[in-house]
């Protein structure tokens, strides 16, 4: 009966070994105050006593085993009632790694797509710089954005068929390049070249040896390793472990990773009423005192920004990684319980402990999927009337909008890692490109031919094109309809301020537009834009020739 009870509870039986009781049973706290409350957790002790708390008393083993059986029967009845669930004590596990070291980790993830958030928590908790993954089970149909983790670059080599696959999360502070010339076509391996500032390059090899690996497979592994050692670089190899996490710490200087910083206006203490009242006191009539569009625009921007900086100053914000919104605290607790059950099962080796772990593991997967499904269903239902927001949610679900931003640039073998160096390099590249286009277009235009062609095309057509002055109503209507989704330009004025101040600033803005039309002059400040280079092919190195410029102009 004793054995049957604990098997039903998914815990190991108690037995006597050399006059010592080994217990992997239950420690219960039962209160009989008009109701029964049960708190249970996995507990193991190798000693002469099995401690069972009952109404504040402790019972020794031997003669008191019958009472422990009664407790187990009570627990079994409560468990079958469906109102009480077993709770494992997750305990605490130290994840501190030595400082001033380069940490290389490896784990068999057994499917990355549904465990990305767990890997993200692991990286944030441990601070591992390079985490190699085997059995990622990805294919070319799965977008990189669906497994992207902020602050890390993801490199991969997928298997052509089902299962397998290798991946590597590398911290943004490191420059990693895939060495396809060292990878073998006969095995699953991934070689990565790691560039460190003021330190020699190093090679990291990741191997996956499937259960079907034979002698020939291992021969290809050694051949791949030999090719890498011929590079005369510091070489490290990962992948020859089971599903447990292994970490290798190398004493090395670690470059400081780039932080994602944005500058935007702070509306924490903003009052629209006070802002409007102060704007009414500003002499915007000074804008119309000049017939030069550049001077008029400069006057308006200086007057408007002086008030805007007082009520909504520009602040520096560091963008931090956000957890997955569908992973609740309850799910995180279940994950801790699952990990605790696995540690308990590995120590004991009892089949009943492994059964508890498998039940918790499957339950975590089920709850996580249901929570994610409910979150995105609710998000899509809430945006049915807004197609733009709905597609943004769908793209986020599919991983189309989570592609990481490159943190370094490469050109002619030279690598740029500092933001200022990257900006100067791309500015020089795009300037030279524009100069080349201008030189190719320097041939004079045959105005007589163009005029004749336009005349022939427009013959017999009752239509014409001409500029006309803007009215105050048109300008006010455009300002009042500005959305909040526009990105702020270099002038630091966003749509929100322009919209709420539309009644006051419509007249000076109308004057600037009409003056620009009349003088045929486009203001110089509106020619300046934020330039963002984005990669053309994200699978290729981020070089100048593999980038296209995106200009972010001022709102006005």
Automatic annotation (TrEMBL):
Residues 106-229 form the Endonuclease/exonuclease/phosphatase domain. Gene3D superfamilies: Endonuclease/exonuclease/phosphatase. It comes from the Eukaryota. It holds the Pfam family Exo_endo_phos. InterPro entries: Endo/exonu/phosph_ase_sf, Endo/exonuclease/phosphatase. This is Endonuclease/exonuclease/phosphatase domain-containing protein.
């Amino acid at each position: 009966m004793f054995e049957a009870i604990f098997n039903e509870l998914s815990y190991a039986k108690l037995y006597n070994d050399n006059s010592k009781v080994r217990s992997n049973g239950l420690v219960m706290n039962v209160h009989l105050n008009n109701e029964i409350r049960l708190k249970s957790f996995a507990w193991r002790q190798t000693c002469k006593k099995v401690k069972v708390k009952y109404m504040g008393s402790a019972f020794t083993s031997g003669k008191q085993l019958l009472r422990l059986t009664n407790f187990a029967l009570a627990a079994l009845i409560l468990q079958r009632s469906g109102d009480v669930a077993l709770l494992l004590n997750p305990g605490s596990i130290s994840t501190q790694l030595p400082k001033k070291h380069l940490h290389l980790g490896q784990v068999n993830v057994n499917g990355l797509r549904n465990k990305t958030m767990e890997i993200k928590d692991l990286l944030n908790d441990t601070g591992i710089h390079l985490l190699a993954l085997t059995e990622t089970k990805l294919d070319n149909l799965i977008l990189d954005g669906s497994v992207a983790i902020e602050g890390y670059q993801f490199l991969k080599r997928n298997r052509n068929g089902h299962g397998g696959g290798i991946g590597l999360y590398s911290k943004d502070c490191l420059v990693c390049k895939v060495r396809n010339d060292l990878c073998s076509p006969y095995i699953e391996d991934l070689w990565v070249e790691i560039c460190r500032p003021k330190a020699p390059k190093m090679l990291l090899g990741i191997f996956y040896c499937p259960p079907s690996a034979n002698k020939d497979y291992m021969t290809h592994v050694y051949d791949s390793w030999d090719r890498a050692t011929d590079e005369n670089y510091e070489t490290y190899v990962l992948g020859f472990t089971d599903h447990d996490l292994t970490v290798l710490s190398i004493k090395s200087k670690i470059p400081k990773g780039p932080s994602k910083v944005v500058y935007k206006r702070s509306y924490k203490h903003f009052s629209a009423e006070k802002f409007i009242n102060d704007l009414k006191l500003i002499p915007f009539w000074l804008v119309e005192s000049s017939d030069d569009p550049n001077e008029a625009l400069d006057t308006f921007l200086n007057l408007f920004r002086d008030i805007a900086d007082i009520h909504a100053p520009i602040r520096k914000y560091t963008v931090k990684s956000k957890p997955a919104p569908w992973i609740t605290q309850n799910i995180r607790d279940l994950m801790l319980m699952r990990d605790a059950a696995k540690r308990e099962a590995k120590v004991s080796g009892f089949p009943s402990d492994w059964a508890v772990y498998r039940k918790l593991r499957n339950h975590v997967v089920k709850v996580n999927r249901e929570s994610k499904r409910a979150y995105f269903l609710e998000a899509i239902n809430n945006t049915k009337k807004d197609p733009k927001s709905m597609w943004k949610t769908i793209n986020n679900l599919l991983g189309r909008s989570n592609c990481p931003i490159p943190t370094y640039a490469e050109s002619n073998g030279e690598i740029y890692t500092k933001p200022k160096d990257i900006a100067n390099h791309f500015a020089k590249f795009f300037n030279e490109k524009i100069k080349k286009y201008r030189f190719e277009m320097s041939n004079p235009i045959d105005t007589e031919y163009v005029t004749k062609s336009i005349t022939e095309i427009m013959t017999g057509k009752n239509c014409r094109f001409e500029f006309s002055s803007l009215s105050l109503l048109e300008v006010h209507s455009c300002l009042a309809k500005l959305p909040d989704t526009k990105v702020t330009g270099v002038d630091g004025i966003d749509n929100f301020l322009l919209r709420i101040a539309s009644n006051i600033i419509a007249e000076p803005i109308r004057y600037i537009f009409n003056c620009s039309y009349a003088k045929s002059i486009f203001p110089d400040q509106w020619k300046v834009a934020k330039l963002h280079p984005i990669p053309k092919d994200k699978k290729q190195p981020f070089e100048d020739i593999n980038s296209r410029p995106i200009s972010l102009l001022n709102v006005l």
